[in-house]
Automatic annotation (TrEMBL):
Name of a matching Pfam family: Aldo_ket_red
A GO CC term attached to the entry: cytoplasm
A GO molecular function held by the record: oxidoreductase activity
Keyword field contains Magnesium: no
UniProt keyword list: Oxidoreductase
Domain of life of the source: Bacteria
Lineage: Bacteria, Bacillati, Bacillota, Clostridia, Eubacteriales
Protein name according to UniProt: Aldo/keto reductase
UniProt xrefs under SUPFAM superfamilies: NAD(P)-linked oxidoreductase
Keyword Oxidoreductase: yes
Length: 327
């Protein structure tokens, strides 16, 4: 697989979000199945694996996902660019953001069975913890060799710029797809100009752009798609023009809708690394094979022109500090 840069890190141009092996998509697979899926992704050429301390069944078992990833990469650590995340609570950072970072990281390292993490994200901004203090602490962890780079998740340019001035940011992980394009206004140009990787989570719009989600699809258990407004029965029907647009190109290219969705963002921005997530081995490999799909300039323009005319029904919004977390 081709590679892209996330600051000082080089990663496969499509990464793998590992959350689904622990929660978020209903019934989780067995540990054996999950480990096999991760190793198949590595064998294909995907070296960029993304996890978090928070990923666990119903968000109650801290580190469940990290333990699975750790077992999967055992003996292959040098072949992996490993990303994980933390959230700093207000109380634990009153004395020292660095101490809080170090405590969380040490626990993650133990679960991941490694002595360093390649990319360490602040999972969400805590308004009570200045991002500059976090950036300073991350810089110390880099100097100590415990992490190689650091990043922020679901942030605007203001936060990125404040942090980047203290310790250079390697990557920003925000939601991005054909149906979530707000970050094209400011964040993506900033990342492109400052050699910061933009890691796009939910790049297939929670599976909607695959064309496999219909008004009859039932989401059960802790499946996060139960709360995604684009996937209500009414909005699935209203958003059908997105499927029609992508399907037209996919049929002519002889590939899947999901692959076109990923190829579109790879073609558009050199700093973007899509991070599709799935718990299904077949779907994981399908997504990774989007690296084999190259859009022509004419096909890309067709998609761009079509998207410009479409309205998204049920836009997803992140809320932080009482306001929409969008530029």
């Amino acid at each position: 697989m081709k590679t892209r840069n996330c600051g000082n890190l080089t990663v496969s141009e499509i990464g793998m979000g590992c959350m689904g092996f622990s929660h978020g998509y209903g019934q989780i697979p067995s540990e054996e199945y999950s480990i096999e899926a991760l190793r198949k992704a590595l064998d294909y050429g995907c070296d960029f694996l993304d996890t978090s301390e928070a990923y666990g069944p119903y968000m109650s078992e801290t580190g469940h996902n990290e333990k699975i990833v750790g077992k999967a990469i055992k003996g292959r650590r040098e072949d992996v660019v490993l990303a994980t995340k933390l959230f700093i609570g207000t109380g634990e950072a009153r004395r020292s953001a660095y101490d809080a970072l170090r405590k969380h990281l040490e626990a993650s390292l133990k679960r991941l069975q490694t002595d360093y993490v390649d990319l360490y994200y602040l999972h969400r901004i805590n308004p009570d913890v200045p991002v500059e203090r976090v950036a300073e602490g991350m810089g110390r962890l880099i100097d100590e060799g415990l992490i190689r780079g650091w990043g922020l998740s679901m942030v605007t340019v203001d936060f990125i710029d404040r942090a980047h001035k203290v310790t250079p940011v390697s990557a920003v992980q925000n939601i991005y797809s054909m149906m979530e394009r707000d970050y094209e206004k400011k964040v993506l140009p900033y990342c492109q100009a400052n050699n910061i990787g933009f890691v796009a989570f939910s790049p297939i719009a929670s599976g909607f752009l695959s064309g496999k989600v219909t008004a009859d699809t039932k989401f059960v258990g802790d499946d996060v798609r139960r709360w995604v407004p684009q996937l209500s029965q009414r909005n699935i029907a209203a958003n059908q023009p997105f499927i029609d647009l992508v399907s037209g190109v996919a049929e002519r290219k002889g590939c899947t809708n999901a692959q076109i969705s990923l190829a579109w963002m790879l073609h558009k921005y050199s700093c973007v690394v899509p991070l599709p997530g799935s718990k299904n081995q077949e779907r994981i490999l399908e997504n990774l094979r989007a690296s084999e799909v190259e859009l022509t300039d004419a096909e890309f323009r067709e998609l761009e022109n079509g998207l410009a005319d479409l309205k998204v029904y049920g836009r997803r919004k992140e809320v932080n500090m009482g306001s929409e977390y969008i530029d």
